[in-house]
Amino acid sequence: MKVLTVCRGLPREVEWHGRLVSTGIYKEPMEGRVRLRTLNLEGDRQADLSVHGGANKAVYCYPSEHYPYWREELEERDLPNGAFGENFTTEGLTEASAHLGDAFAVGTAEVVVTQPRLPCYKLGIKFGSELMIKRFLASRRTGFYLSVKREGEVGAGDEMRLIHREPSAIPVGEITRLHLAKKYTREDRMILEKILNVEAVPESWKGYFGERSLRG
Question: What's the chain's average pLDDT?
């Protein structure tokens, strides 16, 4: 497991439906090493901190394994690493193999898997289509976020070395599946209980699933 590409970018204003919108989704691959801090990569920013960024979304990872799928789906588009707004384009780590609470050493930093990405309308801006939001979520190729347990320097080519795994070992993709599910089975509820007990999972997700569980 490793980081193929490290990407960063500052917010820019783009026109969308007749108005200017500030977005940080445009990321560019960088060379050399960069400091990974508690809230983001040095030189990287998010535009709307009410829904993006923060300690639980310090780094956005997107698996390189998903790019062939999207290049077939979006034949008309050029899709270099970083096209989905990720900070790390990863190899060998997907939503099925990354588990909630997994801790990795990357360069001299340590990071923890916290949650999947739920796309907002700015993904539609990037791809020039509001339909892209539904397509992205339905594909379940969402990528995932990391928090930073220890700051350090990272760079393209760094190994992602697993240093801790939660006993429950719930794949991050289960949050996406349960978010999309209209009804929960008995097995789903058992998984929910495990998710609620993972310290790394943000309180917003715990609150959401707690309410759904109570509603039945």
Answer: 92
